[in-house]
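Protocol step 4 of 5: obtain the predicted structure for the target chain.
Materials: sequence only (see below). No template structures provided, no constraints applied. The aim of this step is simply to have a reference model before the mutagenesis design in step 5. Sequence pasted as it appears in the construct record:
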Amino acid sequence: MIGRRACEKERRPSFCGGCAVELPSVTCCFTGHRELPAPRLPRLRALLDAAVEAAAQAGYTAFISGAARGFDLLAAEAVLSAKARRPELRLILALPCPDQTRGWPEADLRRWRAIVDACDESLCLSPFYTPQCMLFRDRWMVDHSARCICYMTRFQGGTGFTMRCALERELEMVNLALRMDA
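Step 4 output (structure tokens):
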């Protein structure tokens, strides 16, 4: 059984190799860069809120975030905000390994902990860090989704990898970077 929240002592989910997503057809995942343009964050937040609402109106009820710094945390917060209006929505955190947050700044750790405490489900896909655990998490999110909402300005790193996986699986793609100047 997948733990709903992180354990109280360490605020981390227990390892689970299982699947939290029953119906990928109603599931949306997120991917995006860790570094976001600070002056444009209000616009990005508004676009993200609108994309989550549009997905909910289209019948998506489960949203998977990898809970990484930057766009992933912003996306998780958008889902939690939407849940206030749409309690049927679920936020699932797909964490790559138990020590994902090692070395993070305290402000990001506080945000991460608040999101873990508020999410509907959290699962850790690897019991320990490996050089490939982040990419495994990214592929897992794509494999369990039908739509991907992203913020991608360059096709590299984990975001580029996730986008390539999503394109291979023919997910619906919503790239908010293309709407920033609209």
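Step 4 remarks: The longest helix spans residues 41-57. Residues 7 and 127 are 14 Å apart (CA to CA).
Proceed to step 5.
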